[in-house]
Amino acid sequence: MVSAVNLYVASYDGNITSLSLSQTGNGQYVLSTLSSLKSETPDPSWLEKSGNLVFLASENIQGPNGTVITYKTSDTGILAQVQKPQTTPGGSSVSTYDVGSDGALSSLQTFFYNTPPGPIPQQDKSHPHQVILDPTNKFFAVPDLGADLIRVFSIDESNRLTEQKPFSLPGGTGPRHGAFLQLGENTSQKTYFFLISELANTVASYAVSPADKSLDFTPISSGNVLNQAPPKGLASAELIISPDKKFVYTSARNAPILSIPNPSGQNNDMVPSDTLQVWKIDPNSGALSFEQLAPAGGRNPRHFSLNKNGTLAAVALQDDQRVVIFERSADSGKLGQLLVSTQVVGKLTSVIWD
């Protein structure tokens, strides 16, 4: 039996939906909607939680500038907006903000890029896709999907950023998301970086070390996200590390190569499903080995996340407008049966746990 826990879901239609996951007396899972608010920002695409604050980044697909906004959480699951949306200047940039004690954001720095187009049509310009803090809290790594770079920024004592030498990837890689992992203690401590690339559809691991005010990335392993030749149109999406630091989880879109019973439960037919992938981390070398190809619960798993103790996975299915919950084995790391799902209005872009 698990205590009720809240989840937050963003969608391109502008809704931020709060869900509650609970169990009945006989152990059955229930996923219900608590509230839904209309964001003042166009095309919400990413949610990040810190303490009692939820930060929302929005793309504004039809406009030149994106936006960021802060909400405060509550026990009821209802989010309270902290301030008016703050504008982020364009998609080919990296911006930093100061977070006030009340959660209000104020702009600090912005870095602009005019990178020449890459070899793939999606690389018409620089496209920084994620900002990742390293374990020392001294560097940010930014996968730039359009420029085939991992941009690196050092952080000084006043939280000002200085851009350092980037790490270059082969043309057409399209790095999307990544995560750092630090293992060991003192002199035996090792830092690894895991990267999923949307265009090359690869999952790679690197050894990371400081190098001349920047970070040095040494390749360790790389494999196709599906552990097989990628079908046409495949687009890799998300990458996260399990709370026990033993496994990497990834998702791939536009390749529904598996089938599952209809999650709606309205009939007994089988429906196509994209996939999630499980990779085991070698703690000594940082190499990844493929462990499982699991159904995502439907189409276009743009984003997914694990709960705090790593026993459950929530998946946001963009095309099916559905959130699904899978069980996860803490021992094997493998994803198990689909426990519960619910329809959420809009093309879903992000789902996080409270």
Automatic annotation (TrEMBL):
One of its GO terms (molecular function) is 6-phosphogluconolactonase activity. It comes from the Eukaryota. It holds the Pfam family Lactonase. Coiled coil: none annotated. InterPro entries: Cycloisomerase_2 (IPR050282), Haem_d1_sf (IPR011048), Lactonase_7-beta_prop (IPR019405), WD40/YVTN_repeat-like_dom_sf (IPR015943). Belongs to the cycloisomerase 2 family. This is Isomerase YbhE. It comes from Erysiphe pulchra.
